[in-house]
Amino acid sequence: MVYIGLGEGSGSRFQLNPEPTDLRELHDDLLLLYDRFEEAVRQAVTSGKGLVVEDTSRGYSLAKDPGIRALQQRIREYALRNSAHLLEVSRTSSNARHRAVAIDAIGYAKHDVDQIKALTHGTLDPDPTVRNNAIRALGVIASSQVGPKVPIPYDSFVDLLSSDTWHDRNKSLALLGKLTEGRDSGVLSAILQRSLIPLVECARWSWSGHAHWPRVILGRVGGIDEATIAAKARDPEFVDDALEEIYRSHAF
């Protein structure tokens, strides 16, 4: 699949964090562990056997594949022992690779205020891989059985819908899909006021798999009930129906 001109219609209207300048880096043992983990994931994906299906019920990812799962459990153990160092590297290291690994490992750490703050900060990192890892980790926490220990701030994800980086939009949409489940008026209003145009762009993506969450969110902004959304969101015409509800119920 090729997505062309993501930024042409809505443009990027958010401010990324300044580029970190500190020389602080991760320990070699964690980097070697991640090298093994990423290679195991590549091999599992190449095999095409569905072995990277993940259990996220605990608030962090555990793969079906026993080899990958064992490595993820070691990452979890490391993160619990070294959370302070991971938090420092994720914010201050000038090495983007080290920040990306640190942020991913923080997703395996203790669920507390510091974890949510670090992951939220990472969602606006100047490096797209760091942003991807941070948003993905928050999505796993939000959709897990344990849930976040503190509310996940939604502002950065609303603004990232106007990003010209596809992963920013795709990961933010999945997280906002979870954050809008309760129809919180604050997040729905923020989407309506700041990101309606890019949300509609995403809802018109041709493949329904990628367009699913933007259409669900658009329906919620329009006040459409969940049963109707579930029944009709796969139809591209649902986008126009949702927009009609939005225009009817809000002054433009």
Model description:
The chain has 252 residues and is an all-alpha fold. The chain has a domain at 14-152. 63% of the residues lie in helices and 2% in strands. Strands 1-2 form a two-stranded antiparallel ribbon. Helix 4 packs across helix 5 (96-106), helix 5 (96-106) runs parallel beside helix 7 (128-143) and helix 7 packs parallel to helix 9 (166-179). The radius of gyration is 19 Å and the shape is globular.
Throw out a few tags for this protein.
252 residues, mainly alpha, single chain
* Structure class: mainly alpha
Low-confidence stretches: none
**Largest β-sheet summary:** 2 strands, antiparallel
Query: Measured on Cα atoms, how large is the radius of gyration?
Result: 19 Å
- Which sequence of SSEs, written as H and E, runs from N to C? HHEEHHHHHHHHHHHH
What is the gist of this entry?
With 252 residues, the chain is an all-alpha fold. It has helices at 6-9, 28-47, 66-81, 83-92, 96-106, 113-122, 128-143, 155-160, 166-179, 185-194, 196-203, 208-221, 226-232, 238-249; strands at residues 54-55, 62-63.
What order do the helices and strands come in, and which of them pair?
Layout: H1 6-9, H2 28-47, E1 54-55, E2 62-63, H3 66-81, H4 83-92, H5 96-106, H6 113-122, H7 128-143, H8 155-160, H9 166-179, H10 185-194, H11 196-203, H12 208-221, H13 226-232, H14 238-249
Antiparallel strand pairs: 1-2
Helix pairs in contact: 2-3, 4-5, 5-7, 6-7, 7-9, 9-12, 11-12, 12-14
